[in-house]
Amino acid sequence: MGKMEEVYHIPALLDETVNGLNINPKGIYVDATMGGCGHSRAIVERLTVPGHLYSFDQDMDAIERAFTDPRFTPVHSNFRYMQNFMRFYGHANDVDGILADLGVSFHHFDDPERGFSFRWEGPLDMRMNRKGERDAAWLLNNLDEQRLADIFYLYGELKNARRLAAAIVKARSRNKLTRMEHLLEAVKPLVNPRQEKKELAQIFQALRIAVNDEIEALRELLLQSIALLKPGGRLAIITYHSLEDRLVKNFMKSGNLQGVVEQDFFGRTLTPFRLLTPKPVTPSPEEVERNPRSRSAKLRIAEKI
User: Rounded to whole angstroms, how far apart are CA atoms 250 and 300?
Assistant: First the structure.
């Protein structure tokens, strides 16, 4: 891996994920979240023609950094449109494995102009796709107080969500919120100084999820995986917060987004998947020491029946 890619992102649970996909050298694979190509490169290295990997990313920065290989096709798109693209490429129902690492690339956190981290001064952006119409500033200045409170509560799991929303509405009545320092000035009085980094991270996480419609996109990815995977094909998802993990866990257990386990007349569970990770796989202490941002990663793997 080159220096440029190391700066862009260090993949979490790399060996555990690629090994969990049980790579068939001549199989068809999808990396729904290409990012810095860490997982993608590891998969491609195990493929022989006609084996092929299709990797999705909605950020043109990632597409421009992608490597070139006859076994590899980068796709500039949100993974919620994966099924359409795979039909186009002739793989509507014969995919051997799908991977999604739902973490944000280091590149995004470390670029002040992208607006993903409270560590910098810069525009309130947070769009993964820079051509998206609505950035974080638009949400903060246009959504009503109830909707803002819902975002902070549901996506950030913040107990003071209503107070945060009220503070933002009050601040924007004086001046439009366009930069990260404007947001921090509005919310910092409500943040516990002893947990400042954690609570600010939760606020920024909630806004990022809302800006990019991440939960709905994940729902669409999960549903599409049933049709795309062949029997024996594997689905491997790495999550970073409880909302994502709960959704993935319930889906892999039941085959539906509600997590409702249905049974036949004989009491046998009706599901398209066999869960291969009863408990999520988490990073080793050595990996967390090497890559602290991986500490909250959870990998779950299921096999299409």
Answer: 11
Task: Provide the 10 A C-beta neighbour count for residue 245.
Answer: 20
The backbone torsions φ and ψ at residue 45, rounded to the nearest 5 degrees and listed phi first, read: -60, -20
Please list the residues that pair with 99 across neighbouring strands.
31, 236
Is-above-0.85 flag for pTM? yes
Rg (CA), the chain: 20
Cα 133 to Cα 126, 138, 183, 211: the distances in Å are 12, 9, 20, 10
The domains of the chain, with CATH numbers, are 3-106+214-304 (3.40.50.150), 116-212 (1.10.150.170)
**Percent helix, percent strand, percent coil in the chain, to nearest 5:** 45, 15, 35
d(CA 177, CA 140): 7
CB burial of residue 4 (10 Å; 0-12, 13-18, 19+): exposed
Cα–Cα nearest to 228, from 101, 80, 51, 37: 80
The residues near 198 (Cβ < 8 Å, ≥ 6 apart) are none
Over residues 179-232, the pLDDT tens digits come to 999 999 999 999 999 999 999 999 999 999 999 999 999 999 999 999 999 999
